[in-house]
Amino acid sequence: MLPLAIWTLSFLCAIQAMTPATETACKLREKFNPGVSQRGDVILGGLFPLHFRTAPVYNTFRNKPQPVRCLQFRHRELRWAHTMIFAIEEINSNAQLLPNLTLGYQIFDSCHTHSESLKGVLKLLNKEDGPESRSTCADLPSVSIVVGDAASSESIAASRLLAPFHIGLISYSSSCTCLSDKSEFPTFLRTVPSDAVQIKALVRLVGRFNWAWVGVVAEDSEYGRFAILSFLEEVSTFETCIAFIEFISAASTRSKLVQVTETMKKSSAKVVIVFTFESDTVSLVKEMRQQNITDVQLIASEGWITSAQLWTEETREIFAGTIGFGIRREDIPGLREFLVQVHPSSAPNNPFVEELWREVFGCSVQTSNGTVKETAARYQPCTGTESLGSVENPFTDVSQLTIAYNVYKAVYAIAHALHNLQSCENGRGPFANTTCGQKTNILPWQLLHYLREVQFTNQFGERVSFDENGDPIASYDMINWQRRPDGSVDFVKVGYYDAALPAGEEFVVDADGIEWHGSRHNVPVSVCTDSCVPGTRKGARQGQPICCFDCLPCSEGAISNQTDSTECMKCPIDYWSNDRRDACVPKQIEFLSFGESMGVTLTAISVCGACVTGGVAAVFLRFINTPIVRANNSELSFLLLISLMLCFLCSIAFIGQPTPWSCAMRHTVFGISFVLCISCILSKTLVVLMAFKATLPSSNVMRWFGPAQQRSIVFISTLIQVIVCAVWLATSPPFPTQNTQYQNAKIILECAVGSTLAFCCAFGYIGLLACICLVLAFLGRALPDKFNEAKFITFSMLIFFAVWLTFVPAYVSTPGKYTVAVEIFAILASSFGLLSCIFIPKCYIILIKPEENTKKQMMGRAERL
Length: 865
Fold this sequence. Notes:
22 helices, six-stranded mixed β-sheet, 29 strands, alpha/beta, Rossmann fold, single chain, Rhopdopsin 7-helix transmembrane proteins
């Protein structure tokens, strides 16, 4: 639409140029809404949204369309326009700045709409209507530069229309990032910082107070849409998510506002950023009040952060605690005095002052002939004594001069650019052949060049200049809406954001000075999910933003010691997680100790077994000359008893904390003791078998199994095990180790076997001897009772094998210290089995049945054989 309008304007001028000379005057064909003007050598244009909207128009195209009627007069915006007038008059009275040049102005109302803004631009491009006007399409525009507009949307439209004529547009409030694109808006400049900087400040604010879940409501215009895009791009680098995005506009219906507020009500986001201007904010907050939404912390954009008109008795419950970034505020000396002196009598052709009088004093201003205008007929006539100094009004309120200060800076920037142009000397100029610009008929493109290059420090100590994008040095004050005791609002500066400062120093906030919504000192919490406490980690929810997560407990052996941890850390090998999973604690060390009940019991049983074995040896020693002792080879019996005593006592080496010495002792002593024991039993078994073989006629087998041979069998069998154990200890001995395989929370101290081959050889050798002994004893099972030991040895070997075969699965399946306990139990059980089966029957005869312990009894048995 806008390029078409520009083309149409150029086409109409071309048509005018081709008409007869009598009709070459280039003039407006229709009457536009009136503005405010003042003649001067150089005319500055001005566009201000002095009304909020336009009345609906329903044209039938059967009658001539009526002029558009603007509604909802804005006092604050009128103050902006009069600030421009004040700055121009101040410059005109300055003898140092533009001493030989007088500034004039033409100011029009854009009514906060595109169409009226474009109409104002068209009016500024043409000479004023009147009998003396003889402008043609070839004449220079009536203005060399334009100050305006407020809203980004209107500035975009105006800039596109002005750009073909190389006329600069310097805005005091249009902050859309899009306007920094010089390929689209080559003649646009502004004294308000770009939204790109405001967005960075807002993101820093959100991050400073850990708001991870925020909602956004934006104006449905270039200002709001580009702000949203910039915010989404900037916030993506932080752990902040957008709960919802809603757009509103001046044309939004009640149903649309209800839908937006319903979204706010249902959302868990308690911080909402509002990228709108004052007018749209009014509509939104009124609907929030209707829906009873009073628990939301509002974050204001620069567009309405200092709008005191929003604070009313009805809305202050919602606005209290509002925080946001506003452009720099300054107190302009003399401005209030200038504003309170405004009067219809001193501005008879200013329709906006007349409208101000109607709204402030409720009276109508009479014309010079005493009549009253039709639009003001329902008001009482003014007396002429009304004064703005006697009332409180946004027009004269200079407590928050932010936008007005930007207007003031824009006018002074133009004045300094004109001053530099006027001060130029040929030969030093910036144009072709180092020439200067025209000093009488100012060419817009030459003035625009000087405006881009302007640099000066104003009376407030601020450096005014523009970068390559036409943007100023960006800085914001952080404003907090605080309620005064009388119920009015106080805009308190609680920090700042200055993009010119080094990284890390650009954002400063006084958190203690902020009064938050709903609570004076408690920072609002706005999260999709409550923070994960230490001991848990964040778990992403599928299909939802990263700010919405589940808090999953850390697994065993892992911890998180910070809030909102994204992962759990594994504990070191010697540590384990505590019950809360927020700290690593040393693992519990476990081994079978002498101090616990199991260790005491097994030690007692071992000692008891050794004592019983010693008692049996004492009995045999006491009755060594009796037939039953002598008949059972007393030498082998005593050697067997000694080996059994060692078997009982070696189990004690398995109790207590493993050390290199105890690990070596427990395996080697156990292996040698059991080999010695089995060797003695093997020798006894061979003697029994050979003794009955010797009873056969012509048998001399016993001479091969005399005492010397029996000792040799025991010695050689034991020596083999001693050699195996010696090699074992010399090459890869058993050693203490920490086992965490079975119980992660515990360190089980145990003995590793070292060389697996040596371990298998040592214990395999015991099994081999036991198998040989079992076979030989089984062969002698049919020998007569009470004379031979074959049956008792067979039974003892069966117990031995039963114990150790049961031990293997029990050993594998039993965890921790109970593994050692099972091993000790197997040693004790097999030792008691051997002791009971071989020696208890003999002790029974010796002690209980002494009458059978005679040679006659022995010989009688031999005869029966």
